[in-house]
Amino acid sequence: MFSIFSSSKKADEKSIPDKSAPWSIGTIAVMGGGSWATAIAKMMLEKNDEIWWYLRRDDRIEDFKKLGHNPAYLISVHFDTDRIHFSSDINEVVENANTLVWVTPSPYLKGHLKKLKVRLRDKFNITAIKGIVPDENLVCSEYFHQVYGVPDDNLSVIAGPSHAEEVALGRLTYLTVGCSDLDKARAFSDMMGSDYVKTKTSRDVIGIEYASVLKNVYAIASGICDGLKYGDNFQAVLISNALQEMNRFLTTVHPIERSIFDSAYMGDLIVTGYSNFSRNRIFGKMIGRGYSVKSAQIEMEMIAEGYFGSKCMKEINRHMHVNMPILDAVYNILYERISPAIEIKLLTDSFR
């Protein structure tokens, strides 16, 4: 149910290119208008003459064209808008692009896709979404595969550790591109690479996606503990236990040979758990300080994917039966309204 890719190969196994049928990235479209979408568009325009960009609001598009930057996110990043085909019509964008980089928040993905009349299976679909499709309890590649019939070799994922704000500043960033077809993964990773973006490839699409969901949940836990005035000593223990918990789940849901210490797993967990750029950590910190979930969400004005991810992962794990005390604690605090102080105290007693 949870794994659509072959589990008999190593995550970084080499593939033999088919020289008789060369593959091209073609025209690229960025699907979404948030901070990470803006950072990805910045990277794409460094090696492409033009891109398509799907933004759902026409007023946002008009403001973008007038200002030369995204009016709501990463406003310091300026674009040559003559090189961008903006559209609020998802069908127009998908029709005109060969490669689609999906960067919409996971809770809204289904709503966008319901408008779609153009087939996705023939497009190269890359998910940069760090969440699970609500109600379906599927990571995005599984959803594209099961609902829209996109074949494995046309599904890819981008993993960090990466904050959009640091990409915008041109700070050194390492990204992993996952795809069952390593030739396609390499082609796209080369497209993203620059003097400040270093890339590598992997076959572990499912593992990377679930790790991206879980690291957001664990970042909320880290923020809650910070809000409760737990110190750095405990934070280190929390993150090390979170890594072990992540590894237990990934080994159960998609048992291939991987190193949990790679940057796509441990690195992304660390940066999300510790960084002041992490919206999930900020959200958790507010919860730890006594905010309600609703008031924290209103004040942030941004989506903390880990809030939705904790519920989806809890429901998925009811079938998987993996020992996940940190996930359980975050879920209990956010959805069962258990006191953060009480729940984290119980969690600390389980650590060694």
Explain the overall architecture.
By secondary structure, the protein is an alpha/beta fold. It folds into two domains: 28-203, Rossmann fold; 207-350, Orthogonal Bundle (N-(1-d-carboxylethyl)-l-norvaline Dehydrogenase, domain 2). The chain is built from 15 helices and ten strands. The protein has helices at 35-45, 58-67, 90-96, 106-113, 140-148, 164-168, 182-192, 205-227, 232-253, 263-274, 279-288, 293-300, 305-320, 325-335, 340-350; strands spanning 28-31, 51-54, 84-87, 99-102, 124-127, 132-133, 138-139, 155-159, 173-179, 197-202. The strands form two sheets. The protein has an eight-stranded mixed sheet with strand order 3-2-1-4-5-8-9-10, sandwiched between helices. The chain has a two-stranded antiparallel ribbon with strand order 6-7. β9 (173-179), α7 and β10 (197-202) form a beta-alpha-beta unit. Mean pLDDT is 91; it is low at 1-10 and 12-20.
Give the topology.
Elements: E1 28-31, H1 35-45, E2 51-54, H2 58-67, E3 84-87, H3 90-96, E4 99-102, H4 106-113, E5 124-127, E6 132-133, E7 138-139, H5 140-148, E8 155-159, H6 164-168, E9 173-179, H7 182-192, E10 197-202, H8 205-227, H9 232-253, H10 263-274, H11 279-288, H12 293-300, H13 305-320, H14 325-335, H15 340-350
Parallel strand pairs: 1-2, 1-4, 2-3, 4-5, 5-8, 9-10
Antiparallel strand pairs: 6-7, 8-9
Helix pairs in contact: 8-9, 8-10, 8-11, 8-13, 8-14, 11-12, 13-14, 14-15
